[in-house]
Amino acid sequence: MENVSIATILAKAETTHRLEKREIVALLQADACESELYAAADRVRRRFVGDDVHLRGLIEFSNRCGRNCLYCGLRRDNACVERYRLAPDVIVRLATKARGYGYRTVVLQSGEDAWYTVDRMCDIIRRIKALGLTVTLSVGEKPTEVYRAYRQAGADRYLLRIETTDRDLYHALDPGMEWENRLRCLRDLKALGYEVGTGCLVGLPGQRIESLADDILLFQALDADMVGVGPFIANADTPLGGAANGSFDLSCRVMAITRLLLPDINIPATTAMETLHPNGRLLALQRGANVVMPNVTEGDYRRKYALYPGKICIGDTPAHCRSCITGKIGAIGRRISQGHGFRARAGARGALLESSGREGAA
Ligand code: 5AD
Ligand code: SF4
Ligand code: FES
Q1: pTM (2 decimals)?
Q2: Of 223, 290, 259, 212, whose CA–CA distance to 37 is shortest?
Q3: Counting atoms of ligand 1 from 1, which one is nearest the CA of 71?
């Protein structure tokens, strides 16, 4: 009986890309139907965004952070982490190398580090744009004018996870931060014409399954262009050190449902997934994901960018990661994209499919 209704919900999701909250909750809880969910997400991924995998070169340019999120190893009260901050010239040099490895996008990620003033950031953005690269920023909450300045300097995309839609949980885990301000940031970024990436953590202490359904509905309401989902991984150097890790399978389910409801967006196979499962990124690519973000940070900085323990690739070079991920993607029959990997809007693609006599993807 339960299987029948799950099959109905899956069929509805695959054809209409709309679900009620209670239907999402049912899918999140249906462990027995996991393979059907993953197969549906994989079909939708293939139909809307194809077999290409977009690679983004990740530059972790500063692990200093003025915030104090309870789950995160970069939180300002964590004295165990050795702090670093890369000079603009070094960041631009890493971006140049990333281009050499064939990446078309670099993701500039850091804690909320005030050393990078608006002028410094804009200068870095302009210099990297001049290399012909697409620039994604992941540097936290900023005032509207700052987002505008980054955009005018040429930034194309911005990543800012909502982390959780449960306001009370957010306020308990992110002291001094306002959930409403995070939402304001996401709306600002959208209005300024960025491609906006958001996402959530799965398995935070006290997080309920209903709130994961709300997370997915929020991604849809925001018209997110990219959604990154990752399991919470307990970090011993934080106040949540003793908490249980999030689940790999539940993270995959959240990601797969996200693919069903936002069929044409970009979804990364996240690093945290591979931390919990040796094949985590490849499995994610077969369950809805179409993006991988290999690290292009060099040397000891990778290890020092310690959001959570067990992070993959900390002893590897950018060149090694590039060939490693290329081999893995090829091994599952997928291709590395040669484009810049902007969101392939369903409208345009649907028209394309209709003209070739196939089902429209509206
Ligand atoms: N486990 C998993 N992901 C984490 N992040 C921060 N701390 C952890 C953790 N302990 C994620 C947050 C943030 C991103 C950069 O890293 O979701 O948005
Ligand atoms: Fe800073 Fe982001 Fe970590 Fe929070 S999650 S402490 S804002 S780096
Ligand atoms: Fe870094 Fe495989 S991607 S070692």
Answers
A1: 0.95
A2: 259
A3: 10
